[in-house]
Amino acid sequence: MQDLYSSASPRYSRKHRSSSLADKDLKTNTGTLPIACGSDGRETWGGGAFLIPYCIMLVVGGLPLFYMELALGQHYRSGCLTVWRRICPALKGIGYAICIIDLYVGMHYNTIIGWAVYYLVASFQSELPWLKCNQTWNTENCSTMDEMGRLNETNNTYLSTPAKEYYEREVLEMNKANGIDDIGPIKFSLAMCVLFVFILVYFSLWKGVRSTGKVVWFTALAPYVILFILLIRGITLPGAADGISFYLTPKWEKLGEIKVWTDAAIQIFFSLGPGFGTLLALASYNKFHNNCYRDAIVTSTVNCLTSFLAGFVVFSVLGYMANKQNKKIDEMGIEGFGLVFIVYPEAIATMPLSNFWSIIFFIMLITLGLDSTFGGLEAVITALCDEYPRILGRHREVFVAGLLVFVFICSLPTCTYGGTYLVTLMNIYGPGISTLFIVFLEAVGVSWFYGVERFERDIERMIGKKPCMYWTCCWAIISPVFIFVLFVSSIVFNEDISTPAYTYPKWSITVGLLLTSSSLVCIPLYIFYLYFITPGTFYQRVQKMITPVESSDVMVYNPTLTTANYGTTV
């Protein structure tokens, strides 16, 4: 039986990364466009209503927990399972919960990337297939933007654009499904696109961080180049100023809605990585004296500035679309994934050199998506290889192949005609509020059980300086309290899933809640399991379960091994 209180490090070859930020491994979630979309698949808040809670959540939650996970992973050089076994054995269930959430994300997120692959292939046709209403999948209600612009609002209420019908009736073929309770058979072409995504993921992850680092050089840098190209093009379009004004103008009444704050928190954690095990996994490959504080500041700053910049790219095009259709921006009817797969392609189709703009846009989406899926799946792989080094760690290539085959098979229902209903359900209830509870427990576990002072000493061993009071206050009080309030509020004010075109049945909401519970239940189950197998009295058991396991392989601070130049000061 495995020693559940062992402090031993993983017993397989663990390679260090060649540099801290140079490999871009810690930027795997940089381009998810959280401010621009602010969406959970059902609703889009718009930048103006989303920017303020996003920034507040960054300061009180995202950045402190980002730094905390980097430091933990680097200090203990292990993934989300082993690290909790060493700092607070009772909370090892957090690691299992994280692994389950990451698998849920992999099951539906790679499908979304597959949609982008479908669009990319279609972009090489001589004429973009969503430009006109002369395709076999178009209905009699199809109308181009120019035609809509000549009609008043009453006359175009029931019309749909070629891009909307292409997305719904050609890519997804939603018209062949009757909702989540009748999703129909698998669409072969879509399944092949998703399979292609999984093949790319495998050959990026199979050798570990060395192979991932080489791939991420492209997937992290290419989107920046494309983003700037799209930005220059976007701000030169007619109506772009209106879109940017809409983006930067806050809607103060929205700040009273708890869902805006909850979505902001979830987007921050998905964008930066806390609560998904990604940071623990990637930081575990750092050298012990790497300046993780500098990494936290630089990476999170670049991440959020990129998201802010992406807002200009998206909303400049929305302004152009509204101008062309003679509508206000808040009348565009943007919801869920439609922003990426309907509105933006629709705008691109009206531009000169539309094929070029479409190709680079979907290449950007694919690379950004791959960046994100690399992080989540690497977290699972690292955690399990660290926990079972003799079985899995030494046969990583085979294990990664088996894991991805399993995730791909589980994702096949999302490739059906009604797969988009499953994607939306998993997107809401898979990570969702369970991530809030996990990051809350992480802050509590490190600050209240492991101890802030002990954690400060760990950081001092690595970089030579203790963190300032801001970090300790956030870790111990501000972050856990703020996140717990959001978690409780999101449960109390939880709403049924509905869109203008479809309302999810009650049973599907129950399934979604079970999806959320299936990850969180790992935490109490492991506590009970550990309690019953630990010998001693009640007090002795509890004491041992919450006492950190001292490790004999922890290094002490050696200034000759630290990064020569600190990017920032603690």
UniProtKB/TrEMBL annotation:
Residues 1-10 have a biased composition (Polar residues). GO terms for molecular function: metal ion binding; serotonin binding; serotonin:sodium:chloride symporter activity. The chain crosses the membrane at residues 51-72, 93-121, 183-203, 215-235, 264-285, 297-322, 356-377, 398-422, 428-450, 470-493, 513-534. Disulfide bonds join 133-142. One of its GO terms (biological process) is amino acid transport. InterPro entries: Na/ntran_symport (IPR000175). Na(+) binds at residues 271, 303, 368, 371-372. Residues 1-25 are annotated as: Disordered. Keywords: Disulfide bond, Membrane, Metal-binding, Sodium, Transmembrane, Transmembrane helix. One of its GO terms (cellular component) is presynapse. This is Sodium-dependent serotonin transporter. It comes from Allacma fusca.
